[in-house]
Design the sequence.
């Protein structure tokens, strides 16, 4: 049994918009700081690529989560176990890394290897961040309909 949501009733597209907005606002600040440290560039230079990465991540997030929730809705076991949450975080961040490594290499004018190392540290941070954010988000807003037992609520 899952604890009740602090703010229940957030489903469908509205849930996705709230999720993506909160996630990316926090992510832009964290990525700017991380990229400043990893690249020895200032906040302006690192912030621009953090916003670009965020825009890419939003599109990837919408696609990935739509596909993940379709898959999840077909599973006989409901809820979000530790294993399912880990698969979600790894799948999302792994796909995003494949997109962002060439972007980092181009923007910071570094080799793909250097961009991979930069992205590695960003992925380490974002794996933890994604896991924690999802757990807190689900505690506040409840699980999505795809993870709940019973009929799917209408948006």
Sequence:
């Amino acid at each position: 049994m899952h604890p009740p949501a602090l703010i229940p009733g957030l489903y469908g597209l509205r849930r996705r918009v709230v999720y993506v907005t909160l996630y990316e606002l926090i992510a832009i600040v964290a990525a700017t700081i991380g990229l400043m440290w990893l690249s020895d560039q200032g906040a302006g230079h690192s912030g621009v690529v953090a916003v670009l990465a965020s825009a890419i991540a939003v599109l990837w997030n919408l696609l990935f989560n739509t596909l993940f929730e379709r898959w999840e809705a077909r599973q006989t076991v409901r809820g979000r176990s530790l294993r399912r949450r880990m698969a979600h975080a790894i799948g999302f961040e792994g796909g995003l890394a494949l997109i962002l490594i060439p972007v980092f290499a181009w923007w910071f004018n570094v080799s793909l290897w250097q961009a991979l190392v930069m992205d590695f540290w960003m992925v380490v941070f974002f794996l933890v961040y994604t896991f924690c954010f999802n757990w807190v988000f689900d505690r506040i807003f409840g699980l999505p309909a795809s993870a709940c037992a019973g009929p799917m609520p209408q948006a």
Summary: The helical segments are 12-39, 43-73, 82-108, 112-141. The chain has four helices and no strands. The CA atoms of residues 72 and 146 lie 6 Å apart.
